Task: inverse folding
């Protein structure tokens, strides 16, 4: 998913929802529709990322919505493949808006793109401290802890995801992944089962449960889940992968 979509969706949160210190929405348009920042936003929406970079750099030089201009520049950088430069731009944005839960979240997201996983944890933690019930920040930190192989912390954040959004199958899927990584195999299988109950036609949940079932020496159940995953997968490559995996497992079971 292009980061520009996430930034554009988050501007409203930056303007009023998550940040108590950010300018009022009316103040965001102080320079008028012809301002460099507004031009950069328009270029992002049109996926014209090179032009967006130029506009946001101009906005930064003019101090036109300075923090958001840095964020816009970071978004354009990342969408052009410069994840490290994008993260640096977001760091500047977060430095300018330290009290914004949303900006700290986006800085953490940019850190994840740049594979700066410890920084991703840092910014996600800041976002959580500012907005303790913000689900997305726990999910972000869950992803970063996974990369850092910090198993207990990953379980804790996934558990918080489930607590905040118990009706979300993705929350239960994250919890299943974290529990599996931590070696809590029966609990992991149970969590995937809850994800499947909430969204029974999504193939990846069956695949994830099958992997843990193999580790838990439940080959028969794993075979059924791989076959179900293959039947539900919309992509031909995933269908083939599941079929090949099921065939190999079946062969192993008969020897």
Result:
């Amino acid at each position: 998913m292009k980061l520009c979509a996430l930034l554009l969706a988050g501007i409203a949160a930056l303007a009023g929802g998550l940040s108590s210190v950010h300018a009022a929405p009316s103040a965001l348009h102080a320079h008028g529709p012809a301002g460099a920042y507004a031009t950069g936003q328009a270029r992002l929406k049109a996926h014209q990322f090179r032009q967006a970079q130029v506009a946001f750099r101009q906005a930064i030089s003019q101090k036109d919505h300075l923090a958001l201009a840095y964020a816009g520049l970071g978004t354009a950088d990342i969408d052009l493949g410069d994840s490290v430069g994008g993260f640096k731009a977001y760091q500047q944005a977060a430095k300018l808006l330290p009290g914004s839960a949303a900006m700290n979240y986006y800085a953490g997201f940019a850190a994840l793109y740049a594979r700066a996983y410890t920084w991703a944890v840092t910014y996600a933690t800041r976002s959580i401290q500012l907005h303790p019930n913000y689900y997305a920040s726990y999910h972000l930190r869950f992803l970063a802890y996974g990369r850092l192989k910090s198993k207990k912390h990953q379980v804790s954040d996934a558990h918080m995801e489930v607590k905040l959004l118990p009706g979300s199958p993705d929350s239960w899927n994250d919890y299943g992944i974290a529990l599996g990584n931590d070696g809590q195999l029966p609990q992991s299988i149970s969590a995937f089962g809850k994800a499947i109950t909430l969204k029974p036609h999504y193939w990846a949940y069956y695949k994830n449960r099958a992997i843990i079932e193999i580790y838990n020496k439940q080959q028969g159940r794993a075979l059924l889940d791989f076959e179900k995953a293959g039947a539900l997968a919309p992509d031909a490559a995933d269908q083939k992968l599941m079929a090949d995996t099921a065939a190999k497992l079946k062969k192993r079971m008969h020897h």
The chain has 14 helices and no strands. Residues 8-33 have pLDDT under 50 and may be disordered.
